[in-house]
Amino acid sequence: MLSKKTKYGLKALSYLGVQKEKKPVQISEIAEQENISQKFLESILLSLRKTGFLGSKKGKGGGYYLLKKPEDILMTDVMRVLEGPISMVPCVSLNFYETCEDCPNEGECAVHKLMLKVRDANLAVYRNNTLADLLK
Amino acid sequence: MLSKKTKYGLKALSYLGVQKEKKPVQISEIAEQENISQKFLESILLSLRKTGFLGSKKGKGGGYYLLKKPEDILMTDVMRVLEGPISMVPCVSLNFYETCEDCPNEGECAVHKLMLKVRDANLAVYRNNTLADLLK
DNA sequence: TTGTTATCCTATCAAATTAGTAGGGTATTA
DNA sequence: TAATACCCTACTAATTTGATAGGATAACAA
User: What is the pTM of this model?
Assistant: First the structure.
């Protein structure tokens, strides 16, 4: 299942992506419009800011805004930050590879074989979609 | 992440799939060979039996065996039993569809759009792979 | 028939993860 | 200088996951 964190994060990015004006949008506005717990959303936006997707401004008139154009925000990067590794098992992960200590032979492992294909399929989707593609 | 249940279940199915002889294989043998907690594996095999993948025999010389040929065991079905719905959100699920009560417009929802593509990609993999494909 | 074997079944539990909350700190702006 | 809105840490509740315990039941064989 997709975590609420990822779901809310994607909704927030979309919300920011469709803004006409360039001024920051407040957490409270996004939370209200998208039916998200404000405090929970706050922590999600914070992590999106720390990972370089969002910029922020404090004080009155402050809020969050996209640092890049929606066309330049790849789902591969977004998903890795929000949901974690794209692979379902570490032994097929590109960025977080680990051997399974319980698996004597990776090459003959059925789980490994299947999950490799799943990883490739998911990766293809995420690489071929930017935030802009989700706003159409 | 892939659950241990699914991982162990796939390993057990593979183990049964490569058996030359047709006689039942005991839980203890599979657990030992595949490094799986025996009691946990027991519950997994039980659910695979209840869902029609495995047959079983009690008493001495008993154990589990595949009810179908590996070529006829689709990953779509296996994954649904072990891991649950293939879709990452209910609003794109074929078999377990539910509307998101927090989402006013499914057609314009970025999460929905992305997860539809992810579902299709995963489904394609699972539909095109049988247990036999994982044994090669 | 009786003992052994191995699955069947229910209940329970501990650990980990997830979702959400609380409360104050800090920078910015009017 | 007061109000605003992000920043940050810690905590808590609920859920899920992985694993155990202990006996009931069926099959086989001596």
Answer: 0.94
Domains defined along chain B, listed by start: 4-66 (1.10.10.10), 72-135 (no CATH)
Residue A30 CA distance to nucleotide C29 C1' (Å): 22
**Which of B122, B129, B115, B124 shows the shortest CA–CA distance to B86?**
B122
Per-residue CA distances from A42 to A3, A15, A30, A46, A71 (Å) = 16, 14, 10, 6, 24
The reply to whether residue B121 touches residue A121, judged by beta carbons under 8 angstroms, is: yes
Find the nucleotide nearest A60 (Cα to C1′): D4
Residues of A in contact with B115 (CB under 8 A): 2
For residue A57, give the 3-state DSSP assignment.
Answer: strand
| B26 nearest nucleotide via C1' and CA | C6
Q: Residue A61: which region, alpha, beta or left (left: phi > 0; alpha: psi -120 to 50)? A: left
pLDDT in tens, B100-112: 888 888 999 999 9
